[in-house]
C-alpha cells in the first residue's frame, strides 16, 4: 500500500479522528461508512468520499479536489479548490472552495460557508491557498439541469 494513501472504509457507528499535521498525505478515501463521525486535521492533496449514510465529516483543507458520490443524510464540512458532488440526497455541505461547487443528480442538498475550527486551521488554509473566503460555496452549478443557482445573500444556507 502506498504510504501516502489512506482510507477509512466499511464501518458503522464509528468516531475517527486523523491528524495529518506536518505529514505529506496524498489521497484520503472515506467509503462505505454508516452513522460515523470523521475529523481530518491538517492538509491532504485529494479526498474521495463514496457511499456514506448518516455521517458527519469535518475535514481540514484539501490542496486539490474533492469527489463525493452517493452520500445520504450527511453533514460535510470541507475546504478545497474544487468540489464535485454526484448522487447526494438530503445532505448539508459547508464549503470553502476556490471554484463553484458542481452537483449532478442531487436532491435535497443545501450549502453554507465553511465553519471548521481547530488549532492551526488558519495556517493550513493559508498553505492550501484557501485562506480567503470567496463566497463560491453560494454559487452552485448543476450539470444535469444545465443551470446554476445562487444562495441568496443574507440567507447563508440554501440549496436545491
Q: Layout of SSEs?
A:
Elements: E1 5-12, E2 15-19, E3 25-34, E4 37-41, E5 44-53, E6 56-72, E7 75-86, E8 92-97, E9 102-104, E10 110-113, H1 121-127, E11 139-142, E12 147-150, E13 158-159
Parallel strand pairs: 1-3, 2-4, 3-5, 4-6, 5-6, 6-7, 7-8, 7-9, 8-10, 9-11
Antiparallel strand pairs: 10-13, 11-12
**Level-1 CATH class name:** Mainly Beta
According to DSSP, the number of beta strands is 13
Q: Please summarize the sheet with the most strands.
A: 13 strands, mixed
Low-confidence stretches: 1-5, 152-160
Strand content: over 45%
Shape by Cα distribution? globular
Distance between the termini: 39 Å
Helical fraction: under 10%
Taken together, the total number of domains comes to 1
Report the CATH architecture: 3 Solenoid
Note down, in words, how this protein is organized.
This protein has one helix at residues 121-127; strands at 5-12, 15-19, 25-34, 37-41, 44-53, 56-72, 75-86, 92-97, 102-104, 110-113, 139-142, 147-150, 158-159. With 160 residues, it is mainly beta. It has one domain (5-159): Pectate Lyase C-like (3 Solenoid). The longest helix has 7 residues, at 121-127. The model is unreliable at 1-5 and 152-160 (pLDDT under 50).
